[in-house]
Predict the structure.
Amino acid sequence: MMSEKIRVKDIGKNPDRNLTTIRPEELIPLPPPYDDFEEQPDWKELSKGARENLVCNLDGFVAVSLPKPQNAEEEKKYVDQFVDGMKKLLSRENNWTFLQPLMLSLEYCIGCQTCSDSCHVFEGSGDNEIYRPTYRSEVFRRLVNKYAKPGGKFTAALNGADVDLNWTTITRLAELAYRCNLCRRCAQVCPIGVDNGLITHEIRKVFSQELGWAPKDLHEKGTVLQLEVGSSTGMNSLVAKDNVEFIDEDMTDITGIEVETCWDKENADVLLLHNAGEIMAWPENPGAFAIILEKAGIDWTLSSEQVGYDGVNYGLFYDDFQLARIALKHAGTAKNLKVNKIVMGECGHEHKALMTIADRVLTGEMSVNRESCLPFLEEIVFSGKIEFDPSKNDFPVTLHDPCNIVRNLGIVEPQRRILKYLCPQFREMTPHGVDNYCCGGGSGFAVMSVNNFTDWRVNIASRTKFKQILDAFADQPGPEVQKYLCAPCSNCKGEIRDMLHYYNALEKSSITYGGLVELIVNAMVDVKEPFIEWEMH
Amino acid sequence: MSASTVMVVLYLLLAIMVVAFAVRTIRIAKYPVHLRWELSPVPHEKGRGAYGGSYLEEFEWWTKPREKSLINEGIYMFKEIVFLKALWEHNRRMWYFSFPFHFGLYILFVMAVLLVLGSIASLLNLPTPGIGLVANGVPFLAGIGYVLGGIGALGLFAGRLFSQRLKPVTTPSSFINLGLLLAFFITGVLAVFSTDNFAYQATVFAQAFVTVYFAGEVTGPLAIHLIVAGIFLAYLPFTQMMHFVAKYFTYHEVRWDDEPLEAGSKMEAEIQELLQQTVTWAAPHIGADGKKNWVDIATSPPAEETE
């Protein structure tokens, strides 16, 4: 338990020092052999340049990389813009997309703190007050009540008017908006239905849509790059096609099954939409998809249309307009190819962005059929079209539930039915399903590695998940037994890669990770050699 | 104290309550349709709600009939409203006070309904069982309701004062809300136990109130309690204590709103209209110029950053 007492109003005070300090010994303990924090790698120090030039007075970590202001006028300009942004957030014209859920969450929290115990960041940090789900919400609520609502200054005394509106407050709040994974576990337990994840999402929108502040990895190197080049990886369609061709060749060599990905096939049944990060970082995943679809005789295609080969949509995490721009490109790609449906690859936020969040902006002819790969794969696995030998997967397997697929979309059982059929030693984590814990990479964190943010992610945001993974394999904890963590989500895999690497879990516990399709291919009778490689990707 | 004075004050306070309650409820209901933001479990998912599954688990879900169970939704809501299930499961220490507090209020609500029905029955010269029910039931329910509610409110008030966990989100209005509730329960207890034949007094007042008949007297403690109750009710719609209304919307219109957009639907027409609104967000990449609407912006690439 943290001894530090931080009040809501402290966010705007003492700009020359951190609002809080994270100490490794205060984080929740991990089981052996990870229990000695002194054996873990040291946390990266911020460079002198970063300390001098960037806002870094929240907790000593930097995700947003805001430059320090040049003068008081600049500070005032941004503070005024922030107030304008809050007002726009409360308006029907500028924020119809989330107005009702936002107002309900801002106006009806009774402060029971039920959400706190459900939050893996708060728990992982050893109950640091600033990571409590209500902390940032309460800061924002008090600012909204006083500065963005009619008559707010008159009723402010009753509602807690003690948060200073200044540069320190808004910049710490911008940074604090990137200390929540938007996993919505807190919303799930709230007796009223208040959603602190949504409030965080809306705070991010004010900063992005009004002030133009967002982490570079999500904006410039994320949605902007994707809309400009075609993919947030920076691959244009020619490079993507080349890479997939290599993957096809590799898959054919490894498995002996002839694989040739089809591009831009009109009237295909399935347009498969991968997170293009898979092509770069985990080529065995799109490769495994190709093998399964070929063997099952599916009429499928990839698209080389700009944005149409990358299912990533980081707009989901911080900006409604970037979200809509990308979602429209995805739907447009399917329309142009006249396919029956888009099947989402193993990418959680792609699922959520395109299947539900963008559902109500895909009006008229932009409405296309969209399906998760999980029921799609279940249909194939149990169709009898492919012969399986589950004994080939006879090693401990556990499943990570990506929040965006499970808690947010309610796709819980198809992946379990596959794993129970194909993996004799499958075991659940506790808790699991819709009660799962986030991997710590949610809401874009998995791709945010600037400054010292990776250390914050793997030590705090991922801590509860890492503990859960170790607990799931507690019966065979040592390195002598190879264990597989199935994570059917690209961003989750990115976070898990960083987490396992940081703790050296492959060497100490023989835990590796991968997607669901790799396990399916590994169990195929026609694939003679083991498909899963027991190494860190 | 003169019943007519109490009645005038109460009519005024209740009028404020009704108007404010209606305005606030209508305001929530009138917010535009929003993007989907559902959250599992969604209990109306037939056969799947129990584990949090949804229709999106189906292969080609759009070709299958949607099966909903309103009974499951009703059972979920019943457990949540009556027993505060979420608090029991996730915040037990608060449940120990919140449950008696809420249950006390429910009992008092039943008592108030009984009083009004009893008054009407009496005015219509209906058979005596109804009157008997009021005579026996009202003091019993009032005693339990005020005491339970009072214990709960006292615990919640103490929590706000002393709990390090609750302090950060406690504002002056938290104390005013709970203070008024405590005053309501305490004056209620005093009224019940200091008024001779409470049921009779309460029934007589209820009859006068229902028929707008300005006559008679009410005892001091009962009059004070009625005015405190009126003040509380008039104040209620201006606070987050309206969460019992908000909760309908947070559950049914946000967490459980998993309705897919259908071509040609009323929802689609509403969204088409919303998309025509002019956008004024100022960040350069949005590219808003005071004329462009949502469609213009979403169908154009991000504007060049100039700073």
About this structure: Strands of chain A lie at 270-273, 300-301, 341-344, 370-372, 397-399, 426-427, 483-486, 511-514. Chain A has 24 helices and eight strands. The radius of gyration of chain A is 23 Å. The mean pLDDT of chain A is 96.
